[in-house]
């Protein structure tokens, strides 16, 4: 906890320090004269609200679409075990090993042919594809933890596969769906590399990309405003993850123990 919390504590302290304390050769844990000037300067220098809105649109859209696509796919992978679903499960695991750099060129060419470069819809499509493997793995674990007897009882009453998924399985999967959606949201909110490459117009850039503008051409950072903006960009992820921690752990472990 001490090791992981140190960057956040230092970021919080730096965001409230005046320029004199930031340049001091003897830094302190807490600012002697706390100030909000760094936050005012950050908002004056960069369009943080617009960038936050872009990040919110991209992250929320990607999370909702990824969960909508992954839920029926996860149900099939968990309930209908055959060579095809086994190969799909293996591919989901293997796909997580591909580095971003390996994917960015083909993704760029595909989006260029679809005229989706420098657009939020194009970025959302990339985020959906990137979130799907984890969403599938997590939701499949939830489906495996549900008793088959409930679905068999619904089938005896005449319900088809789609009706069973919508009326029986989906309500029981609600905690897992919520946790998966929020985890996909956090991942998209914090993503930097794809947004940097695919978005060129300043008015369309997201929060992680905007943060790089506080660093000059010579690599000198405007430390106070940078820390203030980074703190604001970090808060949504911290708040959501604090609420999601137990559900995410539960989703990862679901299905590991047979009833």
Describe this entry's structure for a reader.
- Helix 4 (48-79) packs across helix 10 (174-190).
- The longest helix has 32 residues, at 48-79.
- This protein has helices at 2-15, 19-22, 37-45, 48-79, 83-95, 100-113, 120-145, 148-156, 161-172, 174-190, 193-198, 207-211, 223-253.
- It has 13 helices and no strands.
- It is mainly α and 259 residues long.
- Helices cover 74% and strands 0% of the residues.
- Residues 251-259 have low confidence and may be disordered.
Share in helix? over 70%
Name the helix and strand elements from N-terminus to C-terminus, one letter apiece.
HHHHHHHHHHHHH
The number of distinct helices, counting runs of at least 4 residues, comes to: 13
Structural class: mainly alpha
How far apart are the first and last residues' alpha carbons, in Å?
Answer: 34 Å
Q: How many extended strands?
A: 0
What would you call the shape? elongated
Report on the biggest sheet. Answer: none
Strand content: under 5%
| Mean pLDDT across all amino acids | 83
* Uncertain stretches of 5 or more adjacent residues: 251-259
* Estimated radius of gyration: 22 Å
In short, what is this structure?
The chain is mainly alpha-helical and 259 residues long.
Entry keywords:
single chain, 259 residues, mainly alpha, 13 helices, 74% helix, disordered C terminus
Provide the fold topology.
Blueprint: H1 2-15, H2 19-22, H3 37-45, H4 48-79, H5 83-95, H6 100-113, H7 120-145, H8 148-156, H9 161-172, H10 174-190, H11 193-198, H12 207-211, H13 223-253
Helix pairs in contact: 1-13, 3-13, 4-7, 4-10, 5-7, 7-10, 7-13, 8-9, 10-13
């Amino acid at each position: 906890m001490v090791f992981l919390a140190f960057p956040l504590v230092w970021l919080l302290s730096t965001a409230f320090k005046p320029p004199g304390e930031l340049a001091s050769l003897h830094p302190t844990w807490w600012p002697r004269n706390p100030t909000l000037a760094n936050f005012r300067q950050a908002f004056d220098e960069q369009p943080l609200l617009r960038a936050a809105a872009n990040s919110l649109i991209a992250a929320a859209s990607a999370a909702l679409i990824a969960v909508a696509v992954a839920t029926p796919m996860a149900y099939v992978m968990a309930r209908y075990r055959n060579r095809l679903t086994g190969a799909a499960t293996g591919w989901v695991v293997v796909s997580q090993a591909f580095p971003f750099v390996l994917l960015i060129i083909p993704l760029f060419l595909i989006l260029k042919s679809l005229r989706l470069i420098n657009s939020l819809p194009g970025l959302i499509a990339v985020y959906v594809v990137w979130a799907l493997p984890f969403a599938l793995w997590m939701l499949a674990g939830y489906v495996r933890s549900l008793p088959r007897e409930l679905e068999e009882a619904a089938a005896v009453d005449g319900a088809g596969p789609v009706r069973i998924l919508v009326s029986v399985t989906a309500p029981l999967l609600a905690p897992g769906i919520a946790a998966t959606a929020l985890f996909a949201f956090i991942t998209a909110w914090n993503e930097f590399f794809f947004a940097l490459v695919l978005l060129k117009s300043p008015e369309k850039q997201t929060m992680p990309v905007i943060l790089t503008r506080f660093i000059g051409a010579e690599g000198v950072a405007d430390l106070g405003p940078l820390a203030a903006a980074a703190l604001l960009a970090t808060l949504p992820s911290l708040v959501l993850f604090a609420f999601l921690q137990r559900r995410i752990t539960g989703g990862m472990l679901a299905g590991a123990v047979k009833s």
